[in-house]
Specification:
Chain A: Keywords: Signal. The structure holds two protein chains of two kinds. Chain A has eleven helices and 13 strands. By secondary structure, chain A is α/β, with parallel strands linked by helices. Chain A has two domains: 188 residues, D-Maltodextrin-Binding Protein, domain 2, CATH 3.40.190; 124 residues, D-Maltodextrin-Binding Protein, domain 2, CATH 3.40.190. In chain A, the strands form three sheets. A six-stranded mixed beta sheet of chain A has the order 2-1-3-12-4-13. A five-stranded mixed beta sheet of chain A has the order 7-6-8-5-9, with helices on both faces. About 4% of the residues of chain A have low confidence. Chain B is an all-alpha fold. Chain B has a two-stranded antiparallel sheet. The chains are: A alpha/beta, B mainly alpha. Chains A and B meet through helix 1, helix 2, strand 2, helix 3 and strand 7 of A and helix 3, strand 1, helix 15 and helix 20 of B.
Chain lengths: 328, 510
């Protein structure tokens, strides 16, 4: 009932789009493998808004959250909808890590890759009034600390913890990684002084940065972020140094992309590739990635598949080194 | 005073014709959403979110927050009439609300619930209006150890008060903890107790369990009792509202206590669910008529409703001031804020004054509108009690099934609901209380997460639980509440050896 309601209302706003070999015949469902309000959910809802506001699809878009089991529930669900071209899945690196750390019998190769929308950067964040000016001060202090410094992030055995493990290996310091249910919760705990640092995405800590509660020491990327507009403390994202440039040689970026279920036709895939290409050019999308400091990186077809293959191996390697691969 | 003039400006925005229209539409939609179990506030807000993309942010948030108010009011209706909590925080409302409805006092119970919600919500809004920045700072003092202490306090206040068989309470509580452990564990990232069954990955959704334990099991019991549906005499008269109101001032102490508990739990983010249970537990402990709780005592409806709504409203404060959602609905609203181009967080009050004060003004007005609308529907809903059970029962079952399905779009959940219906039936037959199990299921994994986060940070030392004044106070309070019951029993036993104290009141904490 709710879907029909949303469908009827949204259909009235949709404008005519050019003809394709295949077009959706009913509402398109975007399955988000995380809970409402999280980063993946926000992305899906911005895409929904961009498509509907600009009349990019004749059919309405519905966003459904399936957050259980670290996204595993949503992946199993899409795996089961083989051949259904009216369902999409938003993805992050969880698409590699969930199967590897939980033994769930599901892989990204069960799905049809549509497009990569962007990459998400990570930062090393500390409380605004902490004495650390650079990653080196922080690492030095961490080496002497007992009990070890508390570093917070989202979930266990995921990207945030991988960064902490990588920092330990690189610097020789020991940290106590504290998993939270979301980056926002970790950021609040940092602002309250219950953590020494977080390895949050820019979007997860920007509110507290602007509020003068937390600040970034460095960004775990090869290149500085591309956004030059002032954000907080009279600084822009582009002015935050990269971690390698300050001697902390740890980098990690996370893909944000879209998949379809397996077994769809090339025409159906082509429709969505074109749709997301258009989404990536809308003002709404550009505003969204700038606000969340995502690195724009649109890839489709072979380029996307090649990226996925390489990224999967990289994650297998990182997880193996960290000892997070599920045993038998 | 600067804030006060800003608030008046906010009222001007909220009182414009189209915004009042959105408010009424929102409240009505919210009631519908709240009445249907499983649909709930978060879903209602999420479904309508896309419609608001083209609206200006202030009108959009007024529409969506009115849905939230409507859903808060609506959740009480099914709890009282059919023993089916529409929302997690209405569970405690069923304890006395449903017995009242069975006695033919549905109108009274509904009026009490709605009025209590209103009082709770208004206390929450007053808090947001006048002490927002101060309170937001206080919320930051809550680390994992403090969170755990708050949950501990909730458990202890609820268990310590029980006068029935404590072993049974403990058994019920432990089953709840066990169920809460199923699914993915946040701290280790591993799947627990799923036995490679894909459906179990999600764990046991609270609503599915509750619809079964309370709603379905009640239908089984009624069927067993010979298809009689009590409360046929339900009065359908608006005067019941006035009569109930005349009696309310007597319960001022409960109302104030629950408001304070609720506001505190909402800000700290213990949440509305914990608040409703704690409000009920404390009222039972301190009321002169505490022994009658669970048998249809109006105070038992007032206490949890006031606390839940004070908490639900106060939970919006951390969202606005800090950007942390205090509830699932708040999380969806938070997503909405960002789509409209507003960045929640400490700067919102500074950068988006019109929006924030428009929203706060709409909280006052939305609740007044909501109260008037729901009170007008009291006779209508009370009249449902007159319909013969043979007609109503299948409808309730269908609504329950739809509700259970909607939670996760899964057929498996309907079977689970029926299974828990049987569990609830057996529990009631054996005199095991259901409430501790439900409480443990809702708060168990959050308490566990907080406990383990605290120990991870301290390197395994338990000292974190008395490391500062705040956490020590909470832990000591918990201990007092836990042992208050057994101790006072012991003293009572020592004093009056002759009296029979063995026959504890049955099912006092259903």
């Amino acid at each position: 009932m709710k879907q029909q309601l949303a469908a009827a209302l949204a259909a009235s706003c949709a404008l005519a789009a050019p003809a394709f070999a295949w077009e959706p015949t009913k509402a398109i469902e975007i399955v988000v493998p995380f809970s409402a309000g999280g980063a993946s959910d926000q992305m899906a809802r911005v895409i929904q808004g961009a498509i509907q506001k600009n009349g990019l699809s004749k059919q309405p878009i519905v966003v459904v959250n399936k957050p259980a089991a670290g996204g595993g529930e949503a992946m199993v669900d899409i795996q089961k909808s083989k051949g259904d071209a009216h369902r999409l899945l938003t993805t992050s690196s969880g698409i590699f890590m969930t199967p590897m750390t939980t033994k769930l019998p599901v892989s990204w190769t069960d799905f049809t890759p549509v497009a990569m929308m962007a990459q998400d950067a990570f930062g090393l964040w500390v409380k605004a009034d902490s004495p650390y000016k650079a990653p080196a001060d922080f690492i030095e202090a961490a080496k002497k600390a007992s009990p070890p410094f508390k570093v917070g992030g989202t979930s266990s055995k995921r990207e945030d913890q991988l960064l902490v493990v990588a920092m330990e290996r690189e610097s020789g310091a020991k940290f106590a990684y504290i998993p939270h249910t979301g980056g926002g919760a970790a950021s609040t705990q940092l602002a309250g002084g219950h953590l020494e640092a977080t390895t949050n995405n820019p979007a997860e800590d920007v509110a507290n940065w602007r509020g003068g509660q937390t600040r970034p020491l460095c960004i775990f990327s090869e290149k500085a972020l591309p956004y030059t507009e002032k954000v907080a403390e009279d600084k822009s994202w582009s002015e935050i140094p990269t971690c390698p440039s300050l001697g902390l040689n740890v980098t990690y970026q996370m893909l944000r992309g879209m998949f379809m279920p397996g077994g769809v036709t090339p025409d159906q895939q082509a429709y969505y590739v074109d749709l997301f290409k258009k989404v990536s050019e809308t003002a709404e999308w550009k505003e969204y990635i700038a606000r969340n400091a995502l690195v724009p990186d649109f890839r489709e077809g072979e380029a996307y598949v090649a990226f996925l293959k390489q990224d999967e191996e990289r994650h297998r390697d990182l997880l193996t080194k960290a000892g997070f691969i599920a045993g038998n | 005073m600067d804030d006060f003039s800003a608030l008046l400006g906010g009222f001007q925005v909220a009182l414009s014709w189209h915004n009042v229209g959105f408010m009424i539409v929102g409240v009505l939609l919210g009631i519908v959403v709240g009445v249907l179990p499983g649909l709930g506030g978060p879903n209602g807000v999420a479904i309508l979110l896309p419609l608001t993309f083209g609206m200006d942010p202030t009108s959009a948030i007024i529409l969506l927050s009115s849905i939230y108010w409507g859903a808060l009011f609506g959740g009480a209706i099914t709890s009282i009439l059919f023993n089916i909590p529409g929302e997690a925080w209405s569970v405690a409302t069923t304890f006395d609300g449903y017995p009242m409805a069975q006695e033919g006092r549905a109108g009274e119970a509904l009026t009490a619930a709605f009025t209590a919600s209103f009082i709770g919500a208004i206390s929450g809004v007053l808090l947001i209006t006048f002490v927002a920045p101060l309170v937001a700072k206080f919320a930051l003092r809550f680390g994992p150890a403090e969170f755990f202490a708050v949950f501990l306090l909730t458990f202890c206040s609820f268990i310590g008060m029980g006068k029935d068989n404590r072993i049974k309470i403990l058994v019920s509580l432990c089953i709840g903890f066990l169920l809460a452990g199923v699914g993915m564990d946040t701290i280790s990232g591993d799947l627990r107790m799923t036995f490679d069954v894909a459906e179990l990955m999600r764990g046991f959704d609270f609503l599915v369990v509750v619809i079964g334990l309370f709603g379905v099991s009640e239908i089984f019991l009624t069927v067993e009792e010979g298809l009689a549906f009590k409360g046929k005499k339900a009065a359908i008269d608006l005067k019941v509202v006035l009569r109930t109101w005349a009696g309310l001032p007597r319960y001022w102490a409960t109302l104030i206590r629950s408001s304070i508990v609720g506001m505190w739990m909402g800000v700290t983010p213990g949440g509305a669910i914990a608040a409703s249970f704690m409000g009920y537990g404390l009222a039972k402990r301190f009321s002169k008529r505490g022994d009658n709780f669970g048998k249809g005592e109006i105070e038992g409806v007032l206490a949890p409703e006031t606390a839940a709504h004070a908490a639900g409203t106060a939970a919006l404060l951390p969202m606005l001031a800090l950007g942390i959602p205090g509830s699932a609905t708040a999380a969806v609203l938070l997503g909405g804020l960002m789509i409209w181009g507003l960045q929640p967080g400490p700067m919102l009050f500074v950068e988006q004054k019109d929006f924030v004060w428009g929203l706060i003004a709409s909280m006052y007005l939305g609740n007044v509108a909501g109260l008037l609308i729901v009170l007008a529907t009291v006779p209508l809903f009370a009249a449902i009690m007159r319909i013969p059970f043979a007609i109503v029962a299948p409808i309730i079952l269908v609504v329950c099934a739809i509700g259970a399905y909607t939670v996760g779009n899964s057929i498996f959940d309907i079977w689970l609901m029926l299974l828990f219906g049987v569990v609830g039936y057996v529990f009631k037959k054996l005199g095991f209380p259901l409430a501790p199990m439900v409480l443990a299921l809702v708060l168990g994994d959050r308490a566990e997460d907080a406990f383990r986060q605290a120990l991870l940070g301290s390197g395994g030392s338990l000292n974190v639980f008395w490391a500062n004044g705040l956490v020590t106070t909470l832990v000591v309070l918990s201990a007092i509440l836990l042992f208050w019951g057994p101790l006072s029993d012991l003293i009572g036993w020592a004093k009056g050896r002759g009296k029979s104290s063995g026959g504890a009141s049955p099912s006092a904490a259903r």
